[in-house]
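Predicting holo structure, nicotinamide-adenine-dinucleotide bound.
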Amino acid sequence: MARIKKTDRRTFMRNLGIIGAGGILLPGMMSFSSRVKPSVGSIARRDKKLGVALVGLGSYSSGQLAPALQETQYCKLSGIVTGTPSKEDEWMKRYDIPKENVYNYDNFDSIVNNDDIDIIYVVLPNSMHAEYTIRAAKAGKHVICEKPMATTVKDAENMIKVCNDNNVKLSLGYRLHFEPYNLRAMELGQKEIFGPVQNFSAGFSGMINNWEWRLDKEMAGGGPLMDLGIYTIQAACYNMGEWPVEVTKATYGEVTKPGLFKSVEQSITFTLKFPNGTTSSHSTSYANNESYFEAKAKNGWWKLNPAYYYGYIRGETNEGSMRLPNVNQQARQMDAFALSLMDDMPILVTGDMGLRDMKIMMAIYESADTGKPVKLDLEDLNIPKYDLHQTINDDLYS
Ligand code: NAD
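Done. Tokens:
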């Protein structure tokens, strides 16, 4: 299929009500072209890939993001930021990164002067996300921040504000918005292909071994909820195209490894209530393995299992197996962000989406701590629904 021309894409957006007449973006969607661009140089270019700098060269950067950046079409790995000098030579050689594009945490802010870097990707422990997103924004760079967005709602709000104030775009590492099985589930749910969702359940759990900072509440913000359960919250929201109005119940699980789980929960279960009255039930734990969601609608059902892994996802509906490709989720996610910057299009995974999830997770902890339901007010957030997912994903490599 031929790439939709930019004018056609804008017409499509207008028809969706995403941009108003005259190309004015609706509240919360800053116009890219009308911004004063800081030091990023001419970013609206198609003949050159946008440069990405990875901040933090731990397991996700080295195992997934750097390899994915060898497959991207609209961005490439141009720089690194690391506090470990021994990694510098290895990464420069392996990925052909020039010395002048290598930074440490002290000289990071001088990246403002580097026109090779358009996008900073923050892949640090959760408590460091806010500081490095803000420093990147102040250096005039667009930002992708890993999940969870931050460790507090206040930090998440501040990250959005500073990115807006500095005229840069912010996105999050929510890779499943670019994954075919999850996209199909979004379509089934949001378009009510089997009628409205009436019941939703989801679980994401994994065994923990040596992930030290993940056991430290100061650095992680919480336990499996912040790390894995966040995917199940996302799944409930994008299957229904709605955000919860209440955490009806949350309960911490039994601690079977007290030596490890002194600071964060070992497991937690919770239920969320949605505006249409549907309830979703969730489990997440560092003590067992599960990766699924299941939606029951009026006239049918669908489930993914595994639902959240990279590289291997399976799904079925009451009509049979979903036969869809497994893709490089991280490459698609980064290409989609780069393409939206180049094409002056809305960002699919917005800062508001990360803020919503932070608010939900903090309410879940409050409910588990108090034993009471906690109401949520998540209105007025800029969070795209399925139609924009379809446009951006269809357009990505067409
Ligand atoms: P990791 O522990 O493997 O890497 C963290 C990196 O941060 C290391 O390079 C470490 O040296 C560096 N660092 C800098 N200062 C540090 C400090 N004070 N303490 C500890 N480390 C410090 O972690 P990871 O698994 O790569 O996770 C990094 C981020 O990526 C987390 O926010 C995590 O939630 C997210 N993540 C996302 C996905 C996804 O699928 N989207 C998958 C894995 C991780």
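Residues 351-370 form the longest helix (20 residues).
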